Amino acid sequence: MVWNGDNGCKVKNGRKQYTVNIEKRTCSCRSFQLTGLPCPHGCAAIWHMAGEPDDYLDQFYHKETYEKAYAYPLQPINGTHESVKFGIEPVLSPIDKKMLGRPKKNRRKPKDEPKEKKGLNNLVGLG
C-alpha cells in the first residue's frame, strides 16, 4: 500500500491496483460506493490510518436507521381479489419464431439441371 496524502492511498493486489479515498469513501473497484460497506482495499487503507472499518459504514447499516424504519407498525393490505381493475389488457409473451438454421454447404441446383449419375462411368477419362 502506498499512501498518497491525507485521505487516500493506492492499494496493490498482485498486478491490480486500486485507489482509495477514505474521506469520500470511494474506491476504484466501486464496491465501497455501491454497497456502502468498506471493500477489502478500503479496509486496508482504514487500518493503515489506525481506524476501524465499522466507523466507515453507510448510515443505512446503522441500528438507529433500522429502528426508525420499523418504528411504526405495518398495517395489512387488501389481497389481490380487491384490487382495482383498470381495463388494461395483460402483456402477452412474444411470438416464437423459428430461427433459421445454418445454410446448406452444397449449392442449390436448378430443377432443369440433369442429375449426376454415380458410378465408374462418371470418372474422368472413362466416359
UniProtKB/TrEMBL annotation:
Listed name of the protein: SWIM-type domain-containing protein
The entry's keywords: Metal-binding, Zinc, Zinc-finger
Compositionally biased spans, kind Basic and acidic residues: 110-119
Listed SMART domains: ZnF_PMZ (SM00575)
Bias type Basic residues, positions: 100-109
Organism for this UniProt entry: Gossypium arboreum
Region described as Disordered: spans on this chain: 95-127
Pfam families in the record: SWIM
InterPro entries named among the record's database cross-references: Znf_PMZ (IPR006564), Znf_SWIM (IPR007527)
Domain SWIM-type: 18-50
Recorded coiled-coil stretches: none
